[in-house]
């Protein structure tokens, strides 16, 4: 009968490496180490490598909470997005995190999953950590969330949407205008019977705004838009089913705008299955300019929302405010705009002039 010998239990050291330990090894002052942790680029190139090496050798982990108690702020930024699986918001968060990392700040990230009331819960939780700043998505909030943001003792940034009265900072673009831009393009290429497909537009306010902008511009041209609101998540399957439903109600539909590229991809698939030529018979446009949009068949006309630019601009603005804690800058709105990217799903290739 075999026996397994018990390995001696190793005891973890309870002696935490301190900033003073790092300073002693690097032969610099503790204030230089502190500055390096906050903003490495502000430290002299002569001593920065020594500090970095000492941190790595000693395995030093900054106690951000302890360092922030005196200032009554943690070096954390609370960020609330509608969905972690949405590529738009992922790109924005990635850009923010890269910039915050440069300054020694960390993200507290939460997703509402478009559930009413979830935003207030996340905001309350993040505020309990005394963050340096708070970032929320959109500028339409319920009364509870609005009350929390109004009394927050930290800058509040609203992203991906523009409104009339920012708490501190808004960085985004007009979704109404994005919808209008798609409509004007469809009208320019001769659309006569149009539809809009969105997902959960009761809770997805920005998708609803794009729908309203599209419908409003079409109505001015005398075209009444049929709106198909998919109850579940945005997906190619949802887009395919929505096109099938629309064709039953509007057999002559010749232009479809979608609340995002994922739905539009499903519309393209269904059109191909039914033998509907795109764009000759049916024009299709999306929103988001996702990586597949340029490579699908045919390439998809869409709106480029500049998601990365939104995240970077928010981080830069908040870091400037964090560097001047005594200042109270005026509320600011930053419109980063968007770009209409026209591809073959709405516009046939120009005829060969030599033909």
UniProtKB/TrEMBL annotation:
Annotated CDD domains: HTH_LacI, PBP1_GntR
InterPro entries assigned to the protein according to its UniProt record, in alphabetical order: HTH_LacI, LacI/GalR-like_sensor, Lambda_DNA-bd_dom_sf, Peripla_BP_I
Domain of life: Bacteria
Pfam families (UniProt xref): LacI, Peripla_BP_3
Gene3D superfamilies per UniProt: 3.40.50.2300, lambda repressor-like DNA-binding domains (1.10.260.40)
Annotated SUPFAM superfamilies: lambda repressor-like DNA-binding domains, Periplasmic binding protein-like I
Residue ranges of every copy of the HTH lacI-type domain listed in the record: 17-71
Keywords, ordered alphabetically: DNA-binding, Transcription, Transcription regulation
GO molecular function: DNA-binding transcription factor activity; transcription cis-regulatory region binding
Protein name per the record: LacI family DNA-binding transcriptional regulator
